[in-house]
Amino acid sequence: MPVKNRNIVEIFNEVADLLEVEGANPFRVRAYRNAARTVDELSGNVADMLEKDEDLSKLPGIGEDLAEKISEIVKTGELSQLKELQSRIPSERVKMTAIEGLGPKRVHFLHRELGIESLEDLKAAAEKEKIRHLSGFGPKMEKKILEGIEKLAGKKERYLLKDVEEIAEAFREHLNKVRGVKKVMVAGSYRRCRETVGDLDILAACGKDSKGEVMEAFVDHEDVVEVVSRGETRSTVIARGGLQLDLRVVAQESYGAAMHYFTGSKAHNIAVRRLGGEKNLKINEYGVFKGDERVAGKTEEEVYHKLGLAYIEPELRENRGEIEAAQKGGLPQLVTLEDLRGDLHSHTRLTDGRNTLEEMAEAARARGYDYLAVTDHSQKVTVAHGLDVKRLRTQLEEIDRFNDSSKGIRVLKSIEVDILEDGTLDLPEEVLRELDLTVCSVHYHQNMSGSRMTERILRAMDNPCFHILGHPTGRLIGRRDAYEVDMEKVLEAAAKQGCFLELNSQPDRLDLSDVHCMQAKEMGVKIAISTDAHSIAELDFMRFGMGQARRGWLEAKDVLNTRPWNEIRKMLRRG
DNA sequence: GCCGTTTTCGGCCCGACTGTTTTCAGTCG
Hints:
It is a single chain. This protein is α/β, with parallel strands linked by helices. It has five domains: 5-89, Orthogonal Bundle (DNA polymerase, domain 1); 92-153, DNA polymerase, domain 1, CATH 1.10.150; 159-250, Beta Polymerase, domain 2, CATH 3.30.460.10; 254-328, Beta Polymerase, domain 3 (2-Layer Sandwich), CATH 3.30.210.10; 337-572, Metal-dependent hydrolases (TIM Barrel, Alpha-Beta Barrel). The chain has 24 helices and 18 strands. A five-stranded mixed β-sheet has the order 2-4-7-6-5, sandwiched between helices. Helix 21 (487-497) links the parallel strand 16 and strand 17. Helix 1 (5-21) runs antiparallel to helix 2 (26-40) and helix 13 (255-263) packs across helix 15 (300-306). It is globular. The chain binds one DNA strand of 29 nucleotides through helix 2, helix 4, helix 7, helix 9 and strand 6.
């Protein structure tokens, strides 16, 4: 079994965890985590790169030592350093650092003083009130530890954007109503449109005398079940459902700097601050400072400009080259919802959708679209009552009737046709030729090997009726891994054959990933941002796909459905 | 462990909150 990037990522992160509880140099720990992130965001396979004799130490955050370690992992499947660390440090000790208020130092100290090796030891020691007597600890800390152990069990790690949207909006509106509040925004990974968020970072700007009221309104919100900490400018609460929310209150003149700081990402902020340091500027959440003098901070634009950078959109702030691009004036002009002319993937009641063709089309028109592709399932998908040739033809007649009598929206004849196990399509070519376009997707036999899955998709692309590859990796965020397809080969084939890839906007799919979007752009493959809507309401999922597309640096020209239909029609003609 | 128009050492982002102290370390984001 060839070593995958994910194996390397996991090993490096585990080394970092273990080094941390051992009390190693924090910068050394960070080096392992940075390297893990670099590998995680590579579009290509590290094993292949080594095969081609590429120099891994050229990658950001990877020097000679870590390049050598990667090489060892690829060759042997493991890392001797990790084995050695594991033999010395029980993994249970790492788990303890997940407890609120317990970090590596305290875990290390508890082990040294009381021989605590596991959560069970820790619980027993706390219950026997052994911890409160240690220097630096006390009764409160002991209580916090016991509560922390309880919480650990039911803790959800990350939430889908869609699942936190409602609560984010509720808090935003609630705080906006407080007297003296000028602006409220939800920053953090939520603003950067990451696929999932761990918590919500809320930022409020207000006058000096209303700070207290804002904090009070925050911790008193009806959805708050616990106040973790409460200060004058910063508080943390847990909301119903376990989601953590942080509020920061700042003065208006610092709002831009605070927005920048609390939007992150951490890696982006570190890089920006380092750049500031080179220019003798100190950057914190209150502003940009030259000595004691504040030289910027009211807006984010100001902060960037002071550093000689163009404004960087939140979705790009991951330290993946955006700072260098901003220095050179080479940032992408990111695609926006307004650029979209239509949606190329939707379902109706004929299969597993909830609305009729007319209702879907009307809703698409109401959203300002010029066209909507109706792409019901094909016969293979029996659970969704997929269409055979006869039922599809009936639908095509219905579409003709609709288009003849309706103005302002065009329904495109299409289908989400299954890519069968052998790479053939689920309906005969003669009927597929009658359609305006096809979305071709894998639904069954998802757990074949990577090479067979890749072959299956490439065979499907050989079919001249193949246009768009639907939800290209099949992953369901937090529930099902992507199938092990070789994306580089798929993109190569798509570029060669004139096919397209979908970015499916369902909030639990968001399939393609941001990294693969970047790779597609680089290889000249255009992306269709589609909702796969199963109801009128789901047409609005486009905002999630758009966030992902923007994280993938896509511009309007990189996206298929920013074009009018007559232009797309020409692009769909295969050589 | 990485990195360098300050390059082989000595930095590595910066501040708030808590619980413990009585001026601060640890943790967190």
